[in-house]
Amino acid sequence: MAVEAKRQVVLPVGGMTCASCVATVEGALQGVAGVSLVQVNLATNRASVAYDPARAGLLDFEKAVKAVGYHMPWEAALLQLTGVGEQGVPAGVVETALKPLEGIIRVTVNPGAGAVRLHYVPGLTPLVEVKRALRGLGYGVEEQLEGEAALDAEREARQADIRRQLINLAIAWPIGILVMLGTFQPYLPFLSFAPWLNSKVLLFALTTPIVVFPGRQFFVHSWNGLRHGITDMNLLYATGIGAAYGIAVVNTFWPRAGFGGEEATFYEAAALLTAFIILGRYLEAVTRGRTSEAIKKLMKLQPKRARIIENGVEREVAADEVVLGDWVLVRPGESIPVDGLVREGYSAVDESMLTGESLPVEKRAGDEVIGGTLNKTGAFKFEATKVGKDTALAQIVRLVEEAQLTKAPIQKLADQVAGHFILGVHLLALVVFLFWFFVGYARWFEPHSVLVFTPYHLMGMGVFGFALLTSVSVLIISCPCAVGLATPSAIMAGSGKGAEHGILFKGADAIEATTKLTTIIFDKTGTLTRGQPAVTDVVALGHSSEAEALRLAAVAERSSEHPLGEAIVRGAQERGLAVAEPDSFNSIPGHGVEASLSGEVILLGNRKLMAERQIDISGLLARAEALESEGKTAMFVARGGRAIGLIAVADTLKENSAAAVAELRRLGLEVVMITGDNRRTAAAIGRQVGIDRVLAEVLPEDKANEVRKLQGQGKTVAMVGDGVNDAPALAQANVGLAIGSGTDVAKETGSVILIKDDLMDVVAAIQIARATMRKVKENLAWAFGYNTLTIPFAAGILYPATAQMVSPELASFLMAISSVSVTLNTLRLRGYVPAIKKRLGRAAPAAA
Amino acid sequence: MKRRRVGLVSALIYTPLSAAAAALFLLAAPVAAGGDLMARYGGAGWVFLLSMVVTMPTITPLVKRWLKS
Fold it and tell me: In angstroms, what CA-CA distances link A132 with A65, A135, A142, A329?
């Protein structure tokens, strides 16, 4: 069997306005030979395509997308070549060097000016590779930041869409209102001076440009969709507007044709329907821009320039030209260009834009710095350890972008329902037409009946006109035009909101799964606890002081490399105690240590050591047992043959562990702790942190099995761990939350990445996910519910009793309301702050 | 080429289907519309249009799948 080479690429798509456009573009790309998987996202205006590069290329994708009426706004760059001789740049040579690069679409060379303009896909060929190829030809390369090259093509396309819809609005609304005033002129006393405004020919002249110019897009898109077998929301608009306009034209020029004559011209319905849809489109375009703001802000964090030190001399270069091992100088107020390790200097760095941590973080030699963060106080030099697409910022941007391209299960369902819904509506419109034509008209038609909210009597309406009107009203009122934006816009806003707080959802499915959790498992060591022992208690006996007992214990352990010994030395130093070098040191395996200082013997160890050296510890035993019952390790200290105290060492809880567990329980989740520790220690930690259910003595390789067991009990389980040791359990859980990943975002196994090592972010992640999915459900309700409820009225269910029909303009108004509701509802998420962050009063500044 | 073939075969199925629906309407229309030609032919046109809208996206994927297999 032949094995297909697979390549995955994210491409920009311009001109999409609704869910049906997504289906059209997906269909077109899927039709290209060699393409195996396509996912198009309306909110990001991007398509993710998996393909075989031997069978398909970028130009094939562009051609397919253009064929269905859309375009690909490729990223553009303008490069200035330096070191060009008098003869200029040979265009052929440059093109030959660049064309083989996979992501290059078009190259245009201006030989005289030494300028190279190119359109490319950064995901396939980063600009730095293009520069490298050009340098390989012997030229210097400068990226021109001004002008067209520096423009963000995707943003430009979005703004062009907004501009286009604004122009359409400017045509449709003023003229539409004029048409409406003209239609209602006989009933408006303040317009009694202008009876000519009610002229049907004038109304025809005013409405025609609305249908022909702003309305043209619906006819074009619906035809393109139909040709590819796709039913389309545009089709509903086109049939609605077309039918209303068509009836009006017939009634104007052929009033006896049986459509109600001059008394039933629906110009204002066609005009207002177009105006309402355009308003919805405009609002959707604005919403798409707003909901992707988070990612744009992240991208903007990337500094353009860096100052590297070469042979002791500073040199300014483009940030993407910094290579591993370069020493980079950062001055106060400057952004850090790439990731690295501080080598010289000291400063405080604002990392809030990436981690959500509002306080500046101190950096000194040996500390890690993250590209894109802001240096606040001092100057320092650091060595670049991650550059280009490996930096934390690049990984975060990629992760958020990928997440925004994915579809939540609920969206897949909504898309399917929408596709069938539109088809169903057309079928229903056909049934309604046939019913009123063959049955309803003869039985219930009442010549004095009216259209709701209009002056029209249906007196002159024949059987065809009446049945057609009802059928068109069904089409218009049922249009779920907002469904395309309902889910992706909320997912985009939610994932962006997560990124603001250092919480990265790896996909829309992770957001949805997070809202369904019933149980949350915490790994103990390194997650609930700090993962390194610390001195928790010091007990002094007789005339000795606690400080003295701790100081002597630290002296004894000064040369030890045992983790407990290191904890005691660190504990003494943290308390400001001077820890002298012992004169001698001896480790006694399984017992403790022995050291001497100024001629006195110091012992530190367990009961066995004290018993062997015949030291009386009876005054400390009760306290030692109490401490051990709390899961702590107790060690006795003796000097000159006499016990002087007791030191307890234990792994300590992180600052927010207990509070986070309490919050999670308040959210209705069962909280479980998993650890390899013995039952007594595990139970003690469980008590401290407020967890009743403790899974103790679980080997690392068995943690995934424990997750599986809980899932077997019907629970939806999240695992919170450090992302490396707990990788199998994180992968097994319904949602794996990798905590404290720092800059190694891409390596994490979890489906949710928490950059900071703060358990409160677990709570925040759940709150953001819940808020996002709440918004999704509300949006879907607005998009579908309204229309579904009102269809029976449009179909004339009340007509036999009330002799009133829903007018096309009322139908279009009701349809537009759902669009506006979805748009406004999604925008509300922009100001959302997770309750836990609000409560803690440390909501991250909206930098990311 | 393949896409064009799918389009052509599909059109050869859904167009006659829609035309048949319109023809049926045309035959039955006098029952409700009497001699009103506008109602008869206009109605047949509307039935043809809606039938095309319903059958085009239904038939095309079926043909695509059929030709693929």
Answer: 31, 5, 11, 24
